Amino acid sequence: MKKRLLSGVKPTGDIHIGNYFGAMKQFVDLQNSYESFIFIADYHALNQIKNPKKLSQNILEIAKAYISIGLDSQKAVLFKQSDVPVVTEMCWIFNSLTPLGLLRRAHAYKDAQAKKIPINMGLFDYPVLMAADILMYNTDVVPIGEDQKQHLEITQDIARLFNNYYGETFKIPLALINSEVAVIKGLDGRKMSKSYGNTIGLFDSREEIAKKVMSVVTDSRATDEPKDPETCNIFAFHKLFSKTQIEHLKTRYQEGTISYKESKEILIENLNNFLDPIRLKKKELDDNPKVIFDVLAKGAEAASKEACIKIAQVKQKIGVNISLCR
Ligand code: ADP
Ligand code: TRP
To answer: Model-level pTM?
Structure first.
């Protein structure tokens, strides 16, 4: 029996290569070894996105991204969180046993507090809905980026709490974090993030890629001056996209036989080689979006089937199923 993997991405904006290397690539790499459930966390996006049109577009883009990077709907169940409404029911049940202190320590909440961003209940309760997502499907492993580690620990706490109150019901899921690429840096050297506007998008055009890479700030060393590959933002991207040339590039940096301009041009070419097959698949889906709707409908059915079994078991355990008293 294969172990079960579950993960999801919020449809809050354009998918970037930080999302890809930090989380989504693992979905593809692992789809043959695990029974995979991959979803679009649309209810998780609600506290950030209040524009309905934008939210629908983002949902579609993530679905297209999943398929364009190589997720196979024959192998993995691909679905939309909101298509399995019992997940919110599970969230409520978990709410009733989650200590406030646990959520007050959550990074997303603390960050919002520090930045004085208005905080809604959806943001505060975010980790509990995430626990419902994960525990609903008897998940063994959850591939995520480093920044989601704390959320997974909260999920583990909630599973243990429930098991303590009501008896063994939930497996304790494990995080799968690819430590090699725990944090992908953005064009400016900070963590790549939609909120910093420093991203390389998975669906960026050739023109956008060229413009973005050429605008990366470097120091002013001339072509024949030795350069430090480890502090160069361009070189950090070479490590991801120029693997076969990496030693040669490193030597040229250290010996001072490459200009930043040439380094950027090589990167642009390699980035486009990486993105071309993804763009091609995306174009096919843009031309025939029915494929997406069919995949998500099939996924909703398969995920709902599993979720209904679990919620029935849970309702029995907590005592709301009075047929037991007959
Ligand atoms: P963003 O910071 O752009 O809003 P999200 O919070 O939506 O990204 O992250 C979606 C997934 O991608 C998460 O699993 C997260 O850990 C991962 N991720 C996001 N940015 C990066 C990054 N720069 N490096 C590695 N993983 C990332
Ligand atoms: N919190 C994740 C993010 O911000 C998205 C997410 C929601 C998720 N539910 C999940 C990830 C369950 C893994 C498992 O990216």
So the answer is: 0.93
